[in-house]
């Protein structure tokens, strides 16, 4: 059965992930594109280019100390998106978005797919993102061709409505849903595309309210700046705001009340620790992970003044919005090789505040990080060997109160990270 503990919102402030991992596994054959955690139990699912959906139960760690998937459901189309369905008639089910443009709803206990909706009769391309509307049976999805659809598996035909952005805006690769009171029944939605277009929607009237384009990035091969893709979105903070992940290890925080960018978070861009050169398939076609510093995963929550980012440089960063100096790169406990600080924005810039990561070097070691060679070796063992593609927060284990961070990568590996508090208690 699915018995377990209940995840309470008050545990969010205690989340401070660190390496080494609690456990790790490599069962997928190829890139993991997405993962999603259960709302109530220490369960999560992963999906990837091998067309397989795997169910993981972290409670097995207490017995065996090894992370192994409990169930695996192979499929032919590639899995691009996952969403846990936590209410209504589809409780303890998952929505699976595939490269053939279908949204499938499957039972977690059996793996039986009892509902399948081909969005736009299959001519809209792969399902790039899925989001469950809290408190309802509606699931929203974005597609390769820019179509956005709302699906309700309780009714025949399922597709409640569809809307499109201009084709030149590119594939809709991420979406987030919110409301005025934080109690479900989505009122607004924000979508982003590979061409950097971000759109705010009013779900009550199913119309776009405001659209803007993420600032262009300079390109050595072009006379004009190139569009910066917005790879993923996440909600953040107590007031309605959205985080946007782009290239150059950059994340912008946009206020939906003021309709302006209120902050930028900038990870270090260097030649070290770059992801191995490769081409990945996204949105049904090949896309270069440019300059190895694309932020591919974001994890933020409403009412939380922190968020976590990860991407092509394999680093995972914890950002503290209320106290930027408390931000850190998730590595070995005590690693001080990076420093985070708030810097004044340039005159005329869009941002009201900027938080940057900088490297702390010990010059006596001739350019090596202050953690030393031994520390670097340990950190390398803990790091993913390829780009991090997805993040999720795992419901607390039995007899614990703090969620754990799940990280997934392009090489098919899955890790569950410890919390700093847990490491300190063991010592």
Q: What's the short version?
A:
The chain has 427 residues and is mainly beta.
Summary tags:
globular; 6-stranded mixed sheet; disordered N terminus; 427 residues; 3 helices; mainly beta; 4-stranded antiparallel sheet
Tell me what you see in this structure:
This protein has helices at residues 60-64, 372-382, 420-426, and strands at 17-25, 32-37, 43-48, 53-57, 69-73, 79-85, 93-98, 102-107, 113-118, 127-132, 138-143, 147-152, 159-164, 172-178, 188-193, 197-202, 207-213, 232-236, 241-245, 250-255, 260-266, 279-282, 285-288, 295-300, 306-311, 316-320, 328-329, 338-343, 354-359, 388-394, 404-409, 414-419. The radius of gyration is 21 Å and the shape is globular. The protein is built from three helices and 32 strands. The model is unreliable at 1-11, 273-291 and 362-380 (pLDDT under 50). The chain is mainly beta. It starts with 16 loop residues before the first strand and ends with a helix.
